[in-house]
Design brief:
Helix content: 10-25%
Length: 678
Amino acid sequence: MNRITAADYHDIVQVEEPRVAPDGDRVAFVRKVPKDDESYEATIYVVPTGGGEPRRFTIEEGVDSEPRFSPSGDRLAFVSTRGEDDDRPQLWVLPTDGGEARQVTAVAGGVGSIAWRPDGSAIAFVQQASAEDRQEERDLEAPDNWEPDPPDPRVIDRTVYRSMQQYFDGKRSHVYLADLESDEVSRLTDGDRDFAAPEWGDANTLYYTESVGDDPDDSLEYGIIEHDVEKGASATVHTAAGWATHLAATADGRVAYPHTDPDRATLNQSELHVVDTDAERVTTPTADLDRTLGLAAAPQWGPEEEQLYFTTPDEGAVTLWAAGWEDTGPERVLREDGASIDGVDVGADVVALVKSEWDHPGDVFAITLGGAEQHRLTRVNTEYLDERGVSQPEPVRYEGPDGQELEGWLLTPPDFDPSEQYPLIVEVHGGPHAMWTTSGTMFHEFQTLAARGYVVFWSNPRGSAGYGEAFMSAIGRDWGTTTMEDVLAGVDHVTDREYVDGSQVFLTGGSFGGFMTGWMVGNTDRFEAAVAQRGVYDLTGFYGSTDGAYKLVEGDFGTTPNEEPEFLWEQSPVAHADDVETPTLVVHSDDDYRTPASTAELFYRLLRKHGVDTRFVRYPDEGHELSRSGQPAHVVDRIERIVRWFDGYSEYHDVPPALERDDDAELSAGEGADDTGG
């Protein structure tokens, strides 16, 4: 039996975006796998709900996404980068009974958020277009071989001018309609606002959202717009607030949407609201549910348009719920300990979903509407998993410093012997208001670390979602100390076991987990070595350089750098860098605009000047999602560098520290790998 390695990432298949055909007999999904060191191949497959092997439905060219069956099921629309225009995804339509796919759009801003008109005659979509694109009508049809000129200089006049991995460069999101008989594209919205989330009610009524406020970038409010596509008239039917602008509409004018109280919004849970546009009233189906809506699966109406389906983080699992739109008592449709539901589509009599569990990184499943029956439709990684030793996590419950029961998990090496001792790696999640399970995107990393001979511990300390609003908001104005106390309580609990060597404990985490890694090495000497990844190390620098995530400072800390500069400095890891003695590797992406590299640069420099064993590894052409969807070679390299850094300070591995080794030692990139980074 082979051990899992970082390089195995090239062999792991991911499944995404399940969609049920109107007659319920099949499910379309995206099958994604690394193509080479720099790119992925993403192709649409279809699998019968009654059992049978999945078959490829689109050609292996480019990256396909957003499969959507037409209302009659005779066609499948999707978005793809295939063809000559390989950097701007376009809309394609494919007959489901056989034939070639037809390209419908050739627009300058690319296509996303596609939605079939109920009569099957057109598809609404969103694209990012500049005022010049709209004036020259390149957003309707771009000239052949047209390429945008990069801005030089880049002139910025917005509060939020970039996000995740790209600059907006004057572009706004607008809603369009592609007529499938003429292949003509028409623009439904215009102006210096963002419009999103097109969703049809009846065949003439399209709903979408509009960013509102004196400065839309600085506001969480959004309007819900009702647009009559025949008359060309639109009106705001409701105003809501929140982070995710997902809509789900019925033919008789009820629109479901997520809502978050904008007062210190980052500490508040997102509720499911429904506005009845005819009666002008709002209901809250989740009023009695102390959970926040999950962002991975947008709310959807059931077949009778009386019940809504949605997901939430839920005590170490992601749960699928159903609720009547006028009720306040949702019921769990599907919850399995440690399982993560990462995509949902509700059909006439079946629900398709992507679910990952401890023993596989994700497959397509089908369940009945009430969840009584469940069938696994794919086993995309069977061949790979059959040849690897996969360890099963053990649930761990322990008491935090305030008496609160906390939840975590322990993963031992595949050839674990309880009479032996093992070093421990502690992982801290991001967010900060995220939640870990035993599955999801961390499957490969955790299993790789265990296969290297480490016991791996991860937990959901206070501040995590999934345990109620009071639990989630417990880190208000105190990210560092509260979380550290909970994590260290877990470390103390698991190191009481004889097989865990309490003198050999290592620490890592990304995003908020990177913040916590920086904070903990500056406030405790508990760890032999640490790897701080894509973190926030200076809250003031983060406030000024991040995208819309600066709201975390205003919400979680209830302040701004102008109001309490000294307080935010003391709450930042860089303020405690002179107290760090732990060897600390700093890992970041050059194009990370969620947690920009500027604060990592400051943290690294302070560590260097303080004489700490450190190194700064930076990945070009990568953003905040490096660990989940970065270039395959970079995903592998990052895990290998974590292992290499810990091995060098571990008594259980007979290798020198990374600082004393050849640049390419233990890295699958081999000759030419450069580890000097900073």
